[in-house]
Amino acid sequence: MCGIVGFVGRKPCAPVLLEGLSRLEYRGYDSAGIAVIENNNIVVKKTKGELKTLINLLDKGSNFKSEIGIGHTRWATHGKPSNENAHPHKSMNGKFVVVHNGIIENYASLKENLINEGYVFSSETDTEVVAALLEKLYNGNFFETVSKVLDVIEGSYALGIICADFPDEFYAVRKASPLIVGLSDEGNMIASDIPAILPLTNKIYYLNDNEIIKMTADEVEIFDVNGNKLQREVTEIKWDVSAAEKGGYKHFMIKEIMEQPKALKDTIEPRIKDGKINFEDIDFSDEFLKNIDCIHIVACGSAYHVGVVGKYIIEDLARKPVYVEIASEFRYSNPLVTDKSLVIVISQSGETADTLEALKIAKSKGAKILSIVNVVGSSIANISDNVLYTWAGPEISVATTKAYSTQLSLIYLVALYISEKIGTIDSDFVAEKIKEIEKIPGYIEEILKLAPEIEQMAKRYAYLEHAYFIGRNFDYAIALEASLKLKEISYIHSEAYAAGELKHGTISLIEEGTFVVGLACNKDLFKKTMSNVEEVKARGAEVMLITSENMDVSESMVDTVIRIPDCDKLITPSLEVVPMQLLGYYIALARNCNIDKPKNLAKSVTVE
Ligand code: F6R
Description:
CATH superfamily of the largest domain: Aminohydrolase, N-terminal nucleophile (Ntn) domain
Distance between the termini: 11 Å
Strand content: 15-25%
Structural class: alpha/beta
Strand order of the largest sheet: 3-2-4-1-10-9-11-15
Radius of gyration: 25 Å
Number of strands: 27
Bound molecules: fructose -6-phosphate
CATH topology of the largest domain: Glutamine Phosphoribosylpyrophosphate, subunit 1, domain 1
Largest sheet: 8 strands, antiparallel
């Protein structure tokens, strides 16, 4: 989704803006632009296509002296990718210029009125309406004008605004779209995400919805919509610039796959103390947890797949019904949620529009919300009753890997925590499982050593057109994730099926050479899944099997086998997913795909 940066300070802003935008490229975009104030005039430079085109066009920003400016990478929502629709958008009189992430939901009626009043638009975007309103409502007072525009617009927005009449002042607002402020002696900066700010500073302000930010080179002030000044604590970001760089790897995705042992250690360790679960971050009463009527797990994409694993585990341990739901469906389904329900929301970015809206709906029905989130201070974290952060660090590759794995580790701990409170398992059982959970990083270190072998296998599958992933129970949940990983980065058509369901239709697609990955790590169901593998093999499928070290596999039944260490059933999904991430990565590599930024995808999906 769109990325925003803005700077006002004591040095030329253009290089800061361009560097910031390059660190937001991971969000996905189709055009880029910047605007600066030079000699009291607003200058806009923007272009369709890759950011490097803009950077070359501007000679890395070296031609501008201006110390105030805004920048944007656009992911098209209203109007196709084009030079005209690229941000920033100037008002007709040239006084104001705006960058925007989000959607102005009432833009059509606002635009119609403005056209009737004689305003001429030069783009198809919803954003240009904001620029037009700033011009229309301008009374000489920058703050009041911004406030008046906010009274009129509806929807979600992070906005960066500058005005030619105020070459030292910068305004920004945030409502349901990410935005943070960076504070430094050289100047102050806004951005959609931390990596953009890190080259300047690690001191930031997190912002809340409906806050207005006024920045100068020396000061940042935060106001509510009524103009009351708000206090904010400075947060120091612990990770440095290199955490958001490739560090010698070819792609962020493989770097992030390799970082999983550390990310898991950082996520698991603080939650375990003296062999017990230490959830300082959770304050649901024991009474609430004992009397939960049901649990809903709500998320999108890979985070939803974590929920599918969670359903199997929580139902097994807690003996409570668990409904795992895609957020975009949940929000329009009149969900059966009560004040006795626990809703677990899972999101790496903490900004996914559908997940955020689903959370709000569940909350309005009285449910308690526990979120599992990677980005501190994100919208989902801000409005949840309790938050468990995944300490995965910045995840830049669009396809999630380390965030997924850390979410999974927290789901195990949540399952144990709730089940012990409910009384379906005792503390000895929890202590035993905790020991297993602590072993996950070490096991994954071992599995990562398979990377060269999987790379070789991947070459053999690089020219496939279709792939099928089959498994039962949590093997099925991992099949869903494995299939998504492969298709989103390699563009190979791929589907995941519950292994027993294949013969109810899909098996008709299996023919000589069809690629089928059988996931059979759940020992309880090994034989059942292997029967389904035999069914596809009998129809000529090329079969890859993922199973545990000790399982007995007849060589005639499969073409290739990947084995994971033999481990406790609870943590098996964490081990099983890693070779699948590697497989997806290496197949996409062999196909020469744009792995970190697959076409049409965005990292943080802030539109519904
Ligand atoms: C796939 C992937 C997406 C995200 C989904 C939810 O590799 O990354 O499917 O899992 O867009 O995003 P978050 O977790 O930010 O809510």
